[in-house]
Amino acid sequence: MKEQRNMKKLLITLMALMMLPLAACGAKTPAGPETPAETPVETSAERPSYVRGEDEVTGKITVYTTMEETQQEALKTIWNKYYPNSQIEIQADSVGTLATRIRGDESSDADVVIGGLFAADGTTYHDILQPYTAVNDKEQLYHDKSGYYTYYDVQVMSLVVNPELRKELGIEINGYEDLLNPKLEGKIILAAPDASSSGWRQLQTMLAVMGDKFDDEKGWSYVEKLMKNAFSTTSSKDVYNLVINGEYVVGLSYESTVAALIKDGAPVENIYIEEGNTAMAGGAAIVKNAPNLTAAQAMMDLLASTEFQDMRAKESSGRGSNGKSILVDLPKEDTLNMVELDFDYLATNKASMIEKWNTLWAKTH
């Protein structure tokens, strides 16, 4: 009898042991303070090849820029995403004013200049800049032969028009020729080409599409007639702001800037010049003796990336220089009757062209 009881206990024990794996496979351990549920460990996304280590880029980076506010916010967003240990400080103005500030202030803490620097500048700003080639430069459609500029933008010109004021005048504005309408006398605002990048680009475009050949007397004759209807400012920002505020009917500006303003609700229209247009790569550069050189170099790499250029396209309708960047809210270049510019000619003759502009301006005003 005793042996039977022992055998029965043994069989029960064996059956219990056989059931343990099955229970372990099917059971769920309830989550609680003492037995927390397991959660997957989050791994940080791999940093793109053009982004440096988070701890490598620290301190303050001072940005001098011609970018309008929407583009500035896009720049801050991507910078803070990758470099939270580096504070970004932005000071915005025309490139002429920013360059004068750097040249005239030995205590200037500018690390980079972003915007207003173009392929046709030649050596104009080399005295305040230092060379650098972005790590992703091979993706770019445009390259600076001198090695100073990092391009992130392609600038096409346009007219910013206040539709209410135009309607009051009962006129159409579709291009340069329409700006000679006597009803627009004193109602046009443009930026001076010796102080503003947009002014210099507009002068190039006028001379390219309003003459029989670039920089001929026919083109300059148009420029002189336009001057009689226009007022001038030293700031690109003044042009679109004064049109938005209703002080002028039309201004000569950049397409992407106007498109971004419209996206933000500005009551203006972006008019592409029916006589033709020009395109030019614009970019950024590192200031000579930049206080935070590592951050400045990291900024150039970010600007050249598709990530930044795509973000800029979505947020402020920028036209990117990277061959892989997208186009948002802007027409393709092949629909704008583009005229090709001779960048070497522009770089060589900029001083004489600016001098001629100033002579005509003094004559007409």
UniProtKB/TrEMBL annotation:
Signal peptide limits: 1-26
Entry keyword annotation includes rRNA-binding: no
GO biological process, one term: thiamine transport
GO molecular function: thiamine binding; thiamine pyrophosphate binding
Protein's UniProt keywords contain Signal: yes
Entry GO terms, CC: outer membrane-bounded periplasmic space
A matching Pfam family: SBP_bac_11
Biased composition (Low complexity): 28-43
Domain of life of the organism encoding this protein: Bacteria
UniProt keyword annotations, A-Z: Signal
Annotated region described as Disordered, given as residue ranges: 28-52
InterPro entries referenced in this protein's UniProt entry, alphabetically: Ferric-bd
Gene3D superfamilies xrefs: Periplasmic binding protein-like II
Protein name: Extracellular solute-binding protein
Organism from which the protein derives: Proteiniclasticum sediminis
